[in-house]
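Task 17 of the worksheet. Students: predict the tertiary structure of the chain below and write it out as C-alpha cells. Keep your answer in the requested format; marks are given for formatting as well as content.
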Amino acid sequence: MNWDKEKLVKEMLPVVKRIAEDLIHTLPPNVELDDLIQEGVVALLSAIERYDPMRASFKTFVLKRIKGAMYDYLRKLDWMPKDLRRNVKMVERLVAEKGALPTDEEIAEKTGMDPKDANRAKNEMIRRQILMMDGFELEIPAEDGQPDENALREILIERLKGALEKLSEKERIVLSLRFEKELSLKEIAKVLGVTESRVSQIVSVAIVKLRKEVEGW
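Model answer:
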C-alpha cells in the first residue's frame, strides 16, 4: 500500500503536540514539553514505516506508539516508581467509589498515605487518565471487522452508552469537546471559563468512571 508519508506526518503532528501539551502541566519541572513532542514525533515516524494495515487501524497503531514512547521517556526519568504506581491505583479506586476527585486529606485518611504522597499520587492519577483518554475510544473494534470483533464492538458500545449516562453534565460536555470537537484541554478550559487544571480533574474522573463500567471493575 502506498503512503503519502509527508501528508500523514503533517496530519498527525498536531495530535502529537496536543498529547504532549495535555500531559506537561501535571509533570515535574524537569520534564520539557519539547522533549515530549520530540519523543512523540520519533515514534510517529517509526510507526508510519512499520504500519501493517492487516493488523490494526492506522490511528490505533500510531497513537499507541506515540503514547508508548512518551511513557518510556517518563520511565527513564524515574517518574513513576513502584510505590507511586501502587498509590495511583488506590487513588483510582477511591475516585471510582466516590464518583469524584477526593481531596488530599481524604486520600490520606482512606489509604494511610501522608499528605505529600497523597497529592503526588492524585496528580499522577490525573496524568495517567489523560494519557489514556485518546486511546479509550480506540479499544472499540472497527465496524467492518470480523464477526467476533463486531460482536465485541456491540457489547462495548452498549457498555459505553450506559457509562456515559452516569456521567455528570459537565463531564459529558468536556468529553464531547474533546472527542467530537477535538479540542485540547487548554482550549476546553477557555470554552468553559475554567483553568486547565480543573479540566484535567474533570477528565480524569470521567475516564475512571467510564473504565469502571466498560472494563467491569
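Marker's comment: DSSP finds ten helices and no strands in the chain. The chain has a mean pLDDT of 83.
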